[in-house]
């Protein structure tokens, strides 16, 4: 029986695809004079920003500069991000049913403050694990394991819901059931051995009956 649900953020709770890809495209154009098609930037979805830009920098100084400019452009486009349909009502129902909820994201604490807090969803979550909280990030199990340890919960009573291969790999490495958020996932056919495919946020409620 599921008693705890852990969620990824980008592509699962919040639709940030436009914001993240277009802000990076803008940053690369302005800082490096590179014009990268949006479809070639989809790889960044679901991974930490530092990892996303490594292919474009040679030094730590260049990395910090590019990250800073990217953050600025994310904020400029932030109004284009939105909560996926039916997510908040699902969170409300889960909260009423006293299901423990948590966030495990590749965003840093600062990014969560700037990009997530504006949606006023924090009230539903008992814990928030960000890229600032662990040395190793998804696809390693460390972030999910940290949430489990801090909440004092059982893995067999927990599910992690996300939209990326890194999300799935992290959950499986941690020994936790993985639910694929089909509403935000790309290239569904690339996900092999998925535990559960969830077509819509409302279907999360059905998991409580299993």
TrEMBL record:
<dbReference type="GO" id="GO:0008967">
    <property type="term" value="F:phosphoglycolate phosphatase activity"/>
</dbReference>
<dbReference type="GO" id="GO:0006281">
    <property type="term" value="P:DNA repair"/>
</dbReference>
<dbReference type="InterPro" id="IPR050155">
    <property type="entry name" value="HAD-like_hydrolase_sf"/>
</dbReference>
<dbReference type="InterPro" id="IPR006439">
    <property type="entry name" value="HAD-SF_hydro_IA"/>
</dbReference>
<dbReference type="InterPro" id="IPR023198">
    <property type="entry name" value="PGP-like_dom2"/>
</dbReference>
<dbReference type="InterPro" id="IPR041492">
    <property type="entry name" value="HAD_2"/>
</dbReference>
<keyword id="KW-0378">Hydrolase</keyword>
<dbReference type="InterPro" id="IPR023214">
    <property type="entry name" value="HAD_sf"/>
</dbReference>
<dbReference type="InterPro" id="IPR036412">
    <property type="entry name" value="HAD-like_sf"/>
</dbReference>
<protein>
    <submittedName>
        <fullName>HAD hydrolase, family IA</fullName>
        <ecNumber>3.1.3.18</ecNumber>
    </submittedName>
</protein>
<dbReference type="GO" id="GO:0005829">
    <property type="term" value="C:cytosol"/>
</dbReference>
<dbReference type="Pfam" id="PF13419">
    <property type="entry name" value="HAD_2"/>
</dbReference>
<dbReference type="InterPro" id="IPR006549">
    <property type="entry name" value="HAD-SF_hydro_IIIA"/>
</dbReference>
């Amino acid at each position: 029986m599921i008693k705890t649900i852990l969620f990824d953020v980008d592509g699962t709770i919040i639709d940030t695809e436009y914001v993240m890809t277009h802000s990076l495209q803008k940053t690369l154009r302005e800082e490096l004079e590179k014009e990268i098609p949006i479809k070639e930037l989809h790889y960044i979805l679901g991974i930490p920003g530092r990892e996303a830009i490594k292919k474009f920098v040679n030094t730590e100084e260049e990395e910090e500069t590019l990250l800073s400019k990217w953050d600025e452009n994310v904020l400029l486009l932030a109004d284009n991000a939105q909560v996926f349909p039916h997510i908040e009502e699902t969170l409300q129902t889960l909260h009423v049913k006293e299901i423990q909820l948590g966030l495990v994201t590749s965003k840093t604490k600062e990014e969560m403050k700037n990009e997530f807090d504006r949606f006023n969803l924090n009230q539903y979550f008992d814990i928030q694990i960000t890229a600032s909280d662990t040395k190793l990030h998804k696809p390693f199990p460390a972030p999910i394991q940290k949430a489990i340890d801090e909440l004092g919960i059982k893995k067999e009573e927990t599910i992690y819901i996300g939209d990326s291969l890194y999300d799935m790999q992290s959950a499986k490495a941690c020994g936790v059931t993985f639910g694929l958020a089909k509403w935000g996932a790309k290239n569904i056919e690339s996900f092999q051995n998925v535990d559960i495919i969830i077509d819509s946020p409302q279907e999360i409620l059905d998991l409580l009956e299993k």
